[in-house]
What we know:
It is a single chain. This protein has one domain. The chain contains four helices and eight strands; from the N terminus they run H-E-H-H-H-E-E-E-E-E-E-E. It has helices at residues 7-21, 52-62, 68-79, 87-100, and strands at 25-28, 102-110, 117-126, 139-143, 147-148, 153-154, 158-162, 165-170. Helix 2 (52-62) packs across helix 3 (68-79). It is elongated, with a radius of gyration of 19 Å.
Amino acid sequence: MSAEYSEDILVQRTTAEKLHTLGWKPIFAYDEEDFGRDSLLGRTDNTEILLKRSLYSALKHLNPGHPDSAYTDAIDRLEQASVTKTTRQHNQEKYKLIRDGISVKYTDERDSATHRYREHTETHRLRLIDYDNPQNNEFLAVRELSIQGQTHQCRPDILGYVNGIPLGGEAY
């Protein structure tokens, strides 16, 4: 196949360009991604599917005023998997968390009414996506992202991330 009719030109670039016109930021990860907190996507290695740096930033932006531990707890909860659940059960659970938000508990030492310090536990539901104002979300169209699963490695043509959460993709 000639270069002018490659999969990259006919499918991937075309799709990424269309998504860009719709407000998505295209990122080409193949041979561009290194690992670490300050890397292209902020992943520590290729087993990470969530883009935790983006998700943490979105949680903080959409739910201001909570301690850092609340945001990291929400990410940990979204990332949790149980060996006793089926894929369908996992998908249903994650869908509910994405749709309804993640309930987190933390100890706050300041009483907001008296401004005196005392310990009490607070529970809050943190939103992962702003459904009312889509412009408050980060949309990434990541091409050729290598992901190492438990048994094999894959590299989807394009993965659509909203606030660091993979919500859609295509592979040919």
